[in-house]
Specification:
Elements lengths: L1 H14 L6 H13 L51 H20 L4 E6 L2 E7 L2 E6 L6 E4 L2 H10 L2 E3 L12 E4 L5 H30 L1
Antiparallel strand pairs: 1-2, 2-3, 3-4, 4-6, 5-6
Length: 211
């Protein structure tokens, strides 16, 4: 028990979100009881009846050859290995800046803000698209459940343990950190899918409140 606590503290200190103390540890244990039962790397663990792929097309998402090892705790949900170097992460940052700038030229404003466990969170108005974790550069992305399932099936992601619970969107996944140019190309498609899902969500909300 004490060894588990010490190991969790070491990780949580790098992660943000929960406080790295006994209160945070107890909160993590509470989350553990709420986590979705089943394999988080199984596309059918959450919403098994939902088809695979909506804004992401299966034929343009390749199979990922290696999944990272994950730390055992539900919070923070972080990788043990396959973490990009600073130079590799610069590629992600540059591609993200170009993506945001391009969308801005089309009139779509993506703003940077703060999420529970990251200062690098990105929003369409008040709808969070994704955030990047400071420790391992993985991302929590808010996708349509069909796209979440596709990424999991192809080996690029796994479910967030609270997906579909306590107000967390059902399409919330942890997308693994990207290290190579080809991988960042997949990540850009994920950002696009998150944006399209957010736009659809906004449109539905406007229609609902306006009717």
């Amino acid at each position: 028990m004490f060894d588990d606590y010490d190991s969790w503290i070491q990780l949580q200190t790098t992660a943000g979100g929960l406080p790295a103390n006994i209160i945070g540890y107890l909160a993590m244990l509470l989350v553990k009881f709420l986590v979705v039962n089943g394999d988080l790397r199984n596309p059918d663990t959450v919403l098994p009846s939902v088809p695979v792929g909506k804004y992401l097309e299966p034929e343009v998402i390749p199979e990922r050859t290696q999944r990272p090892q994950m730390h055992k705790w539900p919070v923070p949900q972080r990788q043990v290995d396959c973490i990009p170097s600073p130079d590799q992460f610069v590629l992600v940052e540059n591609r993200l800046a170009a993506f945001i700038a391009k969308k801005g030229q089309d009139g779509t404003v993506i703003r940077k803000g703060k999420a529970f466990d990251s200062l690098n969170a990105f929003f369409l108005d008040k709808v969070e698209l994704f955030h990047i974790h400071p420790f391992d550069k993985s991302l929590h992305c808010m996708l349509h459940p069909s796209d979440a399932k596709l990424l999991i099936a192809k080996g690029w992601a796994e479910w967030f343990g609270l997906a579909g619970k306590v107000g967390q969107p059902s399409g919330t996944v942890l997308v693994y950190a990207m290290r190579e140019k080809e991988e960042v190309g997949v990540l850009e498609k994920v950002w696009e899918a998150a944006l399209m899902h957010a736009e659809e969500t906004q449109s539905l909300n406007v229609h609902y409140h306006g009717s």
